[in-house]
Amino acid sequence: MTLVVQKYGGSSVADAECVQRVARRVAAAREAGHDVVVVVSAMGDTTDELIDLAGRITSGPAGRELDMLLTAGERISMALLAMAVTELGHHATSFTGSQAGLVTDAAHGRARIVEVAPARIRTALAAGSVVIVAGFQGMAQDTQDVTTLGRGGSDTTAVALAAALGADLCEIYTDVDGVFTADPRIVPTARLMPAVSHEEMLELAAHGAKVLHSRCVEFARRYGVPLRVRSSFADDVGDDPLTGRGGTRITSTTEGRTDHAMEDPLISGIAHDRSQAKITVVGIPDKPGAAAAVFTALAGAGCDVDMIVQNVSAEATGCTDISFTLPASAAKSALDALKGVEESSGFLGLRHDDRVGKLSVVGAGMRAHPGVSATLFSALAETGVNIQMISTSEIRISVVVHVDDLEAAVGAAHTAFGLDSEQIEAVVYGGTGR
Amino acid sequence: MTLVVQKYGGSSVADAECVQRVARRVAAAREAGHDVVVVVSAMGDTTDELIDLAGRITSGPAGRELDMLLTAGERISMALLAMAVTELGHHATSFTGSQAGLVTDAAHGRARIVEVAPARIRTALAAGSVVIVAGFQGMAQDTQDVTTLGRGGSDTTAVALAAALGADLCEIYTDVDGVFTADPRIVPTARLMPAVSHEEMLELAAHGAKVLHSRCVEFARRYGVPLRVRSSFADDVGDDPLTGRGGTRITSTTEGRTDHAMEDPLISGIAHDRSQAKITVVGIPDKPGAAAAVFTALAGAGCDVDMIVQNVSAEATGCTDISFTLPASAAKSALDALKGVEESSGFLGLRHDDRVGKLSVVGAGMRAHPGVSATLFSALAETGVNIQMISTSEIRISVVVHVDDLEAAVGAAHTAFGLDSEQIEAVVYGGTGR
């Protein structure tokens, strides 16, 4: 027996009709002969409404109580989905995170999964039941309190269950068709990627592609869980999860690309991110320990720094500038933390710029092709886009530009790397039948 | 340390402001020096809305899934109340029915409490926390599935916890001031009873008084839990639960009536019930086994029969008529069940009347006063009300009348037993300070 884990997000179960649509998809997978475990988010805006309610009562809810409140949303959607699947003639059983064996640490609001002990799920599957599990939640190992997993929590629940149960596939259903070579809203010629590696997807997700959260991809990579991202609104309901070709497959190698392996592109896709800010520490002494003081202060304030660039020191003053990017929402606490070490670390001032955007070019093919940066920089130069910062990994190049230049930069890079659909549409779509 | 259990119904926590009002009451009880356990229902119409949602998906939801769905409501209200109490400077911890140790049987939708094992509550109380518990829910002993307790479930949760924890008092907060001598909407001279015995309250609740469910009163009587019914909307927030005098106290004796013991009334109150129907089995052979066949059929259909009257048999035919009352909602299945035994039990026909009302006069003083029926029947006769059926218990007389006569009958009985407030207001209100 093959086992498929499917995850449906809040927009996929926004109302009773949506729940019924999802149930038809679940029933089809069951009828195709698979065991099916479904992970479901809270309906539509339920979670936001619950957060609003809490906000009317207190500005600082205890994490334990906020988690208890928010997990009510998934209880509602999972019970409704179980009813809808039953209505289609299949036995269905719903489980909370705690009942499903999602054991976490006690960090309320951002709990980490410690262990998955899905005994009740295995029993229900063996009895022929479809299993519906509440996403985003677990139970703390020590306190037995209900926890939530924080951002990307439902996707991560699905991947963790798929890993623990040895699933053949974990499908992440969402409201878009899959992973594109760039955001189709700003690059109309962007095309659906039929397949991408875990590594590439991780870089795309970490640098702004919103279709999957990097935490879920990281988990999938570590445990070798094959993923597939597809739309719950598409008309491919009867499509067998294991052999169907819609959406984007994310696998440990690029094996899924057999249909166009000969033309494996250098670059898989372009991600962009408008949510960051840039802070520059001006005139900091270029000597051992100065930069450490700055970043120790930031770490102490819980700031998640992304790119860091240190200028060449000015010989006359022995001072340099250090620029870094971080989520714009963390900029205020970062600036406060830095002001606290202004005297001890001896820098002259701080500059803060939240009008920045980040563009990232990702592709496993980059490893063997040294010319990628040159192609990117030329394309941006021809478009008149000034580069403020650069950082690279083995399979990614990221640049920070003025936010007003971001869309033009993404479009130029997409064209420069041959990703536009006019150029290779025949190859890609010929294979997928979509 | 004294322990007070408080229960707040859905209308008491209908929105964020209501939750804050309840929190002030909880905080006041804590500040008066008591340990406090709070049982809370779902907010306002939440439960009805969830049932609606399920109805849009299926006409016959599995009990297990419906219970999972409905228990989400109390999770929301309990977490919000815990936040609101914390906001007032007291530590508060919320527990689901399962976490609170409410162990039930597996009868989804109408589970019975099997055991209360409140270890986590005791630990939280010992740590100085106010404890908030979700009403209406528990966990099935064998399956570990979430269950709901059905009608009166939140009141019953409160009484069960009070019994298990050895509470000094269980307060049931509602949207009326307490238990009245009759429904003030139909008897404007009805007055608040400062005290009533468990037995009397049980009769009143079982026969139409809606302020408490008979299941909760029965539980309180069995375990000797002192109850107090009061309004969450009254302005007596600072009133100490144990010594305050508002609302109605329900105790195992009438000890709470010390302030007017000398004038202990013969009759405590008048209940009425419009929700019943009367069915008459016409011309049934007056021989052993015939009546048994009828009531066996009714029991098989799950019909909860209340009053039963059998006429004197007509000598000519050897046949009699049997009339009984039952909840109007069960009349159809009762009629169907009876038609199934029409031939075997040999009756001639069925009559169904849903235009009936029941009036019940309740009072512990009745035991020593044989004249009560005479007073009631005279009062009804003077008002021109015809009595259709009569039944009695040790401390109650009930009569069935035409539904159009019901209000006049309740008013006449209230006056005849000296319950009108003009007559005894000074004695009662002089004592309670309300």
UniProtKB/TrEMBL annotation, chains A, B:
<feature type="binding site">
    <location>
        <begin position="174"/>
        <end position="175"/>
    </location>
    <ligand>
        <name>ATP</name>
    </ligand>
</feature>
<feature type="binding site">
    <location>
        <begin position="210"/>
        <end position="211"/>
    </location>
    <ligand>
        <name>ATP</name>
    </ligand>
</feature>
<dbReference type="InterPro" id="IPR005260">
    <property type="entry name" value="Asp_kin_monofn"/>
</dbReference>
<dbReference type="InterPro" id="IPR036393">
    <property type="entry name" value="AceGlu_kinase-like_sf"/>
</dbReference>
<dbReference type="GO" id="GO:0005524">
    <property type="term" value="F:ATP binding"/>
</dbReference>
<dbReference type="GO" id="GO:0009089">
    <property type="term" value="P:lysine biosynthetic process via diaminopimelate"/>
</dbReference>
<dbReference type="GO" id="GO:0005829">
    <property type="term" value="C:cytosol"/>
</dbReference>
<dbReference type="GO" id="GO:0004072">
    <property type="term" value="F:aspartate kinase activity"/>
</dbReference>
<feature type="domain" description="ACT">
    <location>
        <begin position="279"/>
        <end position="355"/>
    </location>
</feature>
<dbReference type="InterPro" id="IPR001341">
    <property type="entry name" value="Asp_kinase"/>
</dbReference>
<dbReference type="GO" id="GO:0009090">
    <property type="term" value="P:homoserine biosynthetic process"/>
</dbReference>
<feature type="binding site">
    <location>
        <position position="47"/>
    </location>
    <ligand>
        <name>substrate</name>
    </ligand>
</feature>
<dbReference type="Pfam" id="PF00696">
    <property type="entry name" value="AA_kinase"/>
</dbReference>
<feature type="binding site">
    <location>
        <begin position="7"/>
        <end position="10"/>
    </location>
    <ligand>
        <name>ATP</name>
    </ligand>
</feature>
<dbReference type="InterPro" id="IPR045865">
    <property type="entry name" value="ACT-like_dom_sf"/>
</dbReference>
<dbReference type="InterPro" id="IPR054352">
    <property type="entry name" value="ACT_Aspartokinase"/>
</dbReference>
<keyword id="KW-0457">Lysine biosynthesis</keyword>
<comment type="function">
    <text>Catalyzes the phosphorylation of the beta-carboxyl group of aspartic acid with ATP to yield 4-phospho-L-aspartate, which is involved in the branched biosynthetic pathway leading to the biosynthesis of amino acids lysine, threonine, isoleucine and methionine.</text>
</comment>
<protein>
    <recommendedName>
        <fullName>Aspartokinase</fullName>
        <ecNumber>2.7.2.4</ecNumber>
    </recommendedName>
</protein>
<keyword id="KW-0067">ATP-binding</keyword>
<comment type="similarity">
    <text>Belongs to the aspartokinase family.</text>
</comment>
<feature type="binding site">
    <location>
        <position position="74"/>
    </location>
    <ligand>
        <name>substrate</name>
    </ligand>
</feature>
<keyword id="KW-0547">Nucleotide-binding</keyword>
<comment type="pathway">
    <text>Amino-acid biosynthesis; L-threonine biosynthesis; L-threonine from L-aspartate: step 1/5.</text>
</comment>
<dbReference type="InterPro" id="IPR001048">
    <property type="entry name" value="Asp/Glu/Uridylate_kinase"/>
</dbReference>
<dbReference type="GO" id="GO:0019877">
    <property type="term" value="P:diaminopimelate biosynthetic process"/>
</dbReference>
<comment type="pathway">
    <text>Amino-acid biosynthesis; L-methionine biosynthesis via de novo pathway; L-homoserine from L-aspartate: step 1/3.</text>
</comment>
<keyword id="KW-0418">Kinase</keyword>
<keyword id="KW-0808">Transferase</keyword>
<dbReference type="InterPro" id="IPR018042">
    <property type="entry name" value="Aspartate_kinase_CS"/>
</dbReference>
<dbReference type="InterPro" id="IPR002912">
    <property type="entry name" value="ACT_dom"/>
</dbReference>
<feature type="binding site">
    <location>
        <position position="185"/>
    </location>
    <ligand>
        <name>ATP</name>
    </ligand>
</feature>
<keyword id="KW-0028">Amino-acid biosynthesis</keyword>
<dbReference type="InterPro" id="IPR041740">
    <property type="entry name" value="AKii-LysC-BS"/>
</dbReference>
<dbReference type="Pfam" id="PF22468">
    <property type="entry name" value="ACT_9"/>
</dbReference>
<feature type="domain" description="ACT">
    <location>
        <begin position="361"/>
        <end position="434"/>
    </location>
</feature>
<keyword id="KW-0220">Diaminopimelate biosynthesis</keyword>
